[in-house]
Write a structure and sequence with these properties.
The protein is mainly α and about 210 residues long. About 75% of the residues lie in helices and about 0% in strands. The N and C termini lie far apart (about 100 Å).
Length: about 210
């Protein structure tokens, strides 16, 4: 669909809901700290939008799991990532439904309980994201095997900058420490060997 397979679709869908849920938590904390009800309203709608987007992210992730070539290590990470994602979605779904039903009738104690549950959900969300990062960056999950093999072959060959190779070699050749001193020392040694000894400049000529 539009050039997306399930892993790519999951990658496209999972960032925005996570960001919205995190931002909703920040708005809630700001509303408490600054005593600004308008910030709570913004946090409420951000939360609801993020929870809906989280459903799409989890569903696409469940499909992506079936279409990713992987070994045992990746399988274990995906299983943990999946469980954490379901827990995250469950927590924020409860918070969203709770606030949809009770938002205008909440007292201070009830609102504090909702805030505490949201903080727990935010913590699980961050751990879920960390496991997702391990899947991609540590194990290249979602990258087709032929593409990964081609990339490994290219990396093994290395990357060369041919244009500056000769100039760099020449620079190293001329700038080698001690090269000029060695040449000067060699010339002095040759002079000493041919003449037997040398005299300082301005010494009057004399017969040996």
């Amino acid at each position: 669909m539009f050039g997306y397979d399930w892993p790519r679709l999951h990658a496209a869908l999972n960032d925005l809901p996570a960001a919205l849920l995190l931002i909703s938590m920040l708005f809630e904390l700001a509303s408490v700290a600054l005593r600004r009800p308008t910030l709570r309203v913004v946090g409420y709608w951000t939360l609801v939008t993020g929870a809906v987007g989280g459903v799409l992210a989890v569903l696409s992730g469940l499909q992506a799991e079936e279409h990713i070539a992987h070994g045992e290590a990746v399988h274990q990470l995906m299983h943990t990532h999946e469980e954490l994602a379901l827990v995250t979605l469950g927590i924020f779904a409860v918070v969203a439904l709770w606030r949809i039903v009770r938002e205008r009738r909440m007292g201070g104690t009830e609102r504090g309980a909702v805030l505490a549950l949201s903080l727990v959900g935010t913590g699980v969300l961050l751990v879920t994201a960390a496991y997702g990062g391990k899947l991609v960056f540590d194990h290249a999950a979602g990258i087709p095997t032929p593409v990964l093999e081609s990339e490994m072959h290219e990396r093994a060959e290395g990357h060369h900058h041919d244009d500056g190779a000769e100039g760099e070699a020449q620079e190293h050749e001329h700038d080698t420490p001690g090269a000029a001193d060695s040449d000067h020392g060699a010339g002095t040694a040759d002079s000493a060997a041919s003449g037997g000894h040398t005299h300082p400049p301005g010494t009057p000529p004399h017969e040996d």
